[in-house]
Amino acid sequence: MKKSAHLRNLQCKQKGFTLIELLVALTIVAILAVSVYVALNPAQRLKDAKDARRAADVDTILTAVHQYIVDNKGDDSGLGISATEEQLGTSGSGCTVSNTDCTITTAACRDLTTPLAKYLKTTPFDPDTTLGSDAKTGYSIQVDTNGIVTVKACYTDGSTTISASR
After folding, report:
1. Please, is 127 exposed, middle or buried when counting C-beta atoms within 10 Å of its C-beta (0-12, 13-18, 19+)?
2. Whether residue 2 has pLDDT greater than 80
3. Which residues contact 70 (CB under 8 A, 6 or more apart)?
4. Rounded-to-10 torsion of CA 6, 8, 9, 13
């Protein structure tokens, strides 16, 4: 008889989680995971990263153009840029863009790879691979009557136009 009382005491003293406790804990963990995922918003972070890359590319192109002009004592005629907005790239056709950021009516792209080779290893192109390539970079360039050069990103994932002028 003593043995069965001892076994009963062992069975009563065994500790563990009930099914309800486990389900409650898993539900709390799932709710926290969903909250963190929604708070981080990975799609928006990706868009922000692409726009940051576009801003850096615009500045890189403008800096190279500016260095070219300085090295040529203020003469930008070797670049062939004009008051007409043109897309940068090597393509001879299909370079027109019409959206809120760029209005490019010139069919051929402005190829600056040769004159800027000293300043740019490669010409940057739009980080969205469906929009940018060496042939059509997704960036535009123009110069106004005061000699101020403007480089713009023709595509953005946000609502702000990405451009720089010097």
Report:
1. buried
2. no
3. none
4. 140
Question: Which H or E element spans position 150?
Answer: strand 149-153
Tell me 163's DSSP state.
E
d(CA 97, CA 141): 13
143 forms bridges with which residues in the sheet?
A: 149
- Would strands 103-104 and 97-98 be described as parallel, antiparallel, or unpaired? antiparallel
Residue carrying structure tokens 């898993």: 26
Q: What is the largest CA-CA distance in the chain?
A: 109
Q: Where are the alpha helices (DSSP H) in the chain?
A: 2-13, 19-40, 42-71
pLDDT tens readout for residues 115-133: 999 999 999 999 987 878 8
Q: How many CB atoms lie within 10 A of CB 89?
A: 24
pTM for the complete prediction? 0.79
Do 102 and 88 contact (CB within 8 A), yes or no? no
Domain spans of the chain, in order of start: 2-40, 45-165
